Every structure is written in structure tokens, then in C-alpha cells.
Amino acid sequence: MNVRHRWAAATLGAWLVAFLLGGGPEPRAARADDHEEAVPEVAPEHLSVQDEGLRKKLDAALADLGDRGGSARVTELLKQGPSGGAGAAAATPPQPSVKDLTGPELYRRLAESTVVLGARFRCKKCTRWHTSTASGFLVGADGLVATNYHVLSEEGKDPKDVILALDRHGVVYPVRALVATDPGHDLALLRIDGGPFTPLPLARTDPEAGEEIAVLSHPDGRFYLFTTGVISRMAAFADPRNRFLRAPAETICITAQIAPGSSGGPVTDRRGNVVGVAQRIAPIVQTPDGAGSRYTAMVIQMAVPVSHLRALIEKGGKAESEK
Ligand SMILES: [Zn+2]
Hints:
The protein is α+β, with helices and mostly antiparallel strands. The protein is 19% helix and 31% strand. The strands form 2 sheets. A 6-stranded antiparallel β-barrel has the order 1-2-3-6-5-4, surrounded by 5 helices. A 6-stranded antiparallel barrel has the order 7-8-9-12-11-10. The termini are far apart. Zinc ion is lined by residues 1, 9, 123, 125-126, 128, 130.
């Protein structure tokens, strides 16, 4: 298998309306040191992100836990449906924070609570395992992680096998259960082993157009990448090609950049309170008269409003207490 294929396959295909022309982000160019060079360990206190080191840890853990059955398989989680958790008490997110944070403070705050969700899958072109990466964040100290439903399952994409969480220090957390899902708002709650974790607080209400926001996510394997912007509008949005999202649902449009791999990342206000979950992009593509080439004039970036996440956590908590 050539390098181009490998990188193309490793890019998370979990996008609902991602018409990036040419079929997705350009594959990264082959480098002489691909898979050869020893990668330094990620020092816990070091804020420089080592993508190759994190990816190697992720791939090694997926192979190890996959072979031992040490972490859940996405296909089985979806077949069994939401379990209501692994017997632990329902998570309660912390109270919203009232203190404005500086940019670096906000980065560190979000980085502490954001995880990489890595899953392995097989493509139809070869027999090897590939790795897809997406984003998620802690909403409960006991290991409750919020992400998009489409990170687990998307029609037309290769089914995912073992999934696990990785933090910015390179620590691996097995996924234990699918706690609750809301496919209609593209949300899922997973439980991971380990902790105690540092969850993010949730804003009490959905945001308004004009509010400043920040996103921490992992676009195309660029782990722990911080972007900022504003809520550009709140709008009803439907995706006729996704059977779960055909009904128009209130959606947050943001100017903070996201890309494939950002799915499930926290969108927060300046105080670090979650206002939404990074979800999808919709490029506005123009074809100039008489020209054969098309270009992307603007990319609309969207997120799921936090009110749906609050409702899902309550639902997951009820399911757990009834067990
Ligand atoms: Zn392949």
C-alpha cells in the first residue's frame, strides 16, 4: 500500500457534509523519516504537541488492546445499544465557571479535559488496520466522555473496531461502555476507564450569535489544536443524506476553524464553559463563469448546541440509576 493511500485512509471519514473538494484533505507528503525516526516521549508538563509520538502510542494501544479485547469494539457497542454505563454513579458536570480566562489559560483548561478518540478499521483496498481519530471531552470526573454520534457510526463509512481514548500526555484509557446516544442531534456519551478526570462545565443555556468562543480539537491528526472565533449565527440545519439528521435541528455556526478529526471537540465560551460540540463543516463552493475550476469561497463550521448535551447527560444518568 502506498503512502498516499495510508494517509488518506487515516484521515477520519466521519463528516456529514464535508465536501472538501478532491475527496477530503490532501494527504500529507511522504517524508524520508516516516515510521523510521525514534519519537521522543511527550513530557507531561510540556505544551508542545508531538503528533507522531501520540499517533504511535495510539496505534500501539489499538493493536494491543484490540488483540486482548481490552477496550470496547464500536460495532458491538452499536449493536448492543446504550448500556446506561458500567455501573458507576451518574456523572454531574461541574457548575459553570464565571471567571474569564486568558487564551493560554483557556488552552490549558481545555487540553486537560479533551481526549483523542482513536478507532481502528479496515478499508476495502487492503487487509491492514487503519486508524481514525476524532475528538471528545470529559463531562464527568468518573470518565463520562461526550462526542458526536457520527464519530462511532456513519453510513457509507467502514465500520470501526476497537476504540480508545488518549490524553495529551499520551495516557491511554480503554472505552468501557456506550452510555447514551442522541443520533438526531449527533451526540453520544462514552464511559472510559481510569481517572478521576477533570470534566468541563456546561453552560446553562445555548449561546447567542456574536459571543466569543474557542474550540480545542484534533483536525486531521493535528492533535490539541486551539482555534477561536465567534458564534456567527444560530440556525436550523438539516442534512437530507443522513437518515438521523433529516429533520432541521438548531445548530451553532462558528467562525473558529474545524476540520475532519475535530468532530466531538468542545466549543466553549471564554470561561471554559461548554456551549457546543464541534460537529461538521459545509463549504460554500463557487464555479466562476466559463471556468472549469471550482473554489471554496467560505467554509461554514457547525456545532451541536449544549442544551442537547445537557439533556443526554440527564438521560444517561437516569439509565444508570435504573440499572
Ligand atoms: Zn487499506
